[in-house]
Amino acid sequence: MWKIARAATSNLRQIRRFSTAIPGPCIVHKRGADILHDPWFNKDTGFPLTERDRLGLRGLLPPRIISFEQQYERFMESYRSLEKNTKNQPSNVVSLAKWRILNRLHDRNETLYYRVLIDNIKDFAPIIYTPTVGLVCQNYGGLFRRPRGMYFSAKDKGEMMSMIYNWPSPKVDMIVLTDGSRILGLGDLGVQGIGIPIGKLDMYVAAAGINPQRILPVMLDVGTSNQKLREDPLYLGLRQPRLEGEEYLSIVDEFMEAVFTRWPKAIVQFEDFQMKWAFETLQRYRKRFCMFNDDIQGTAGVALAGLLGAVRAQNRPLSDFVKQKIVVVGAGSAGIGVLNMAKQAVSRMMGNNEMPANNPFWLLDKDGLVTKERKNIDPSAAPFARGFGPGEVEGLREGASLLEVVKKVKPHVLLGLSGVGGIFNEEVLKAMRESDSTRPAIFAMSNPTMNAECTAADAFKYAGENIVFASGSPFENVNLGNGKVGHVNQANNMYLFPGIGLGTLLSGAHFISDGMLQAASECLASYMTDEEIQKGILYPSISSIRHITTEVGAAVVREAVAEELAEGHCEVGAKELMHMSKDETVEYVARNMWFPVYSPLVHEK
Ligand SMILES: NC(=O)C1=CN([C@@H]2O[C@H](COP(=O)(O)OP(=O)(O)OC[C@H]3O[C@@H](n4cnc5c(N)ncnc54)[C@H](O)[C@@H]3O)[C@@H](O)[C@H]2O)C=CC1
Ligand SMILES: CC(=O)C(=O)O
Ligand SMILES: [Mg+2]
């Protein structure tokens, strides 16, 4: 079942070379300076003379023509100088300086921006995505220069159906939407949360090859509960308390109707909504519109793939997943999402849609262990509340502390999605040494870095060198001495959301089923070889994110076909999708991925 998928696509690079060798023309409806000021079309000094003539650019640029490769080198050179010149400055200052230089390129020339991003994704992802994107959101008021994406506010009620036509691109494939209410582990950042949809969509372009002219980051500004922000003179959002209840839902309803009226085939990814709205909107829209919630569903798939990897790392068969004791810290949208998907996997493995006699999950929130004695328990957490009596670990009371739970349960896995930095402290990590696993797994998945439940170095230092470790934001591998390395995995939903979006788009499904999400997760899990897993490597390197996304996208397409949800995309109909072999589906996905090269621009009125 867990075959290695990589060999099947060894010809991917060739496909990409071929498709980039003869770039198709790009229709542009403007001329002259308007083109130079449009990052979608601008080539800076790279416009050939013929194009300068055709588009009225002669004289608007210095005469020398610089090739794409030279422009690329020039940018990388200035990036490297910046790195050198800021060496001794505080890390936040350096990170923001790096973000600024990339953002300036993004604002000026998207083709070059995405090319440097794709080629250097391992170095640049921590800048355009977590952790730096968190810092950018926190400082958004001061950093703001040019708008990116669209802003729909509570003041726009009744206007959204017409506003959506203000977006200049006639076609949109992927939208990432936030209301800014839970930005990473940083809380309510109101309108400043727009940085998250922008960063996520950058990953869509880099990893999934979604055309940047067809992405749309959206901020739904319904106010903020963050009083400090409301009082900040530089704050750019509505300075009013967050809308609640029906008032809130009517805004989201109106936005969704507007989007799908203009772009019926678009996919909307909900991102960083506070828990109550994350679950409510998922339930409300998932059958009506093509959408998913990344924090609930994307995170769950990535975590499940890692949990299965942790079983393999113990040299145990995957079916032993049902015997793993898993402690999840954080009962929010992400933690509950992970538990729901892990529970589904357990029931599938049991073959009878039942849970094993010994419930393998323990859930903690800010009030400690969640049990059946919990007052006013959230309905989504209720299925995971522990009981008392036979089959239960003795002596664990309602609200037991994390340390008590770890000491008594001796879990195989300790997984944090609490947003609380350092909560896996020395004592908790040392208690993991008594785990019943030969290779305990510690997943500190909260973002950004300062909110991680522990650092990689502390995990290996206190819990032991034989652990497997994953974090939501990147950490360096840990030098364990004697030539040994503690491998750090990045358990982040970035390994799945681009493939879920791309696969759904290319299948033409109008709805994202549990089966499609499960297929994505299984594909990620099976991507890793036994040799890698034995080294504690549970996820691929981010350098291969395009490759893994192609595989995940193909797995999603195939599942949509199997469930008869696939209706086809552009000239490829449902029947053709049905007759594609696995390799052909992978090639189909690869063929449809955008790659940044300068296309000849053709002017049309
Ligand atoms: N690595 C990844 O791919 C992802 C990471 N995350 C991260 O997970 C974190 C949580 O996200 P959500 O679940 O959406 O947030 P949320 O706000 O819905 O939930 C947070 C949960 O943590 C609990 N909590 C707070 N303090 C605690 C404490 N001291 N001990 C135990 N539990 C405590 C809360 O009671 C709540 O249940 C964030 O930092 C976010 O960045 C979220 C999605 C994906
Ligand atoms: C990664 C992500 O989606 C989060 O931290 O919210
Ligand atoms: Mg998120």
General description of the model:
InterPro entries: Aminoacid_DH-like_N_sf (IPR046346), Malic_enzyme_CS (IPR015884), Malic_N_dom (IPR012301), Malic_N_dom_sf (IPR037062), Malic_NAD-bd (IPR012302), Malic_OxRdtase (IPR001891), NAD(P)-bd_dom_sf (IPR036291). Its cofactor is Mn(2+); Mg(2+). It is found in: Mitochondrion. This protein has 605 residues and is α/β, with parallel strands linked by helices. It folds into 4 domains: 32-124, Hemocyanin, N-terminal domain; 129-289, 3-Layer(aba) Sandwich (Rossmann fold); 297-491, 3-Layer(aba) Sandwich (Rossmann fold), CATH 3.40.50.720; 495-528 and 538-592, no CATH class. 43% of the residues lie in helices and 11% in strands. Helix 5 (91-108) packs across helix 6 (110-119), helix 11 (195-208) crosses helix 20 and helix 15 packs parallel to helix 21. The chain is globular, with a radius of gyration of 24 Å. The N and C termini lie far apart (54 Å). The site of pyruvic acid (PYR) has 9 residues, from helix 15.
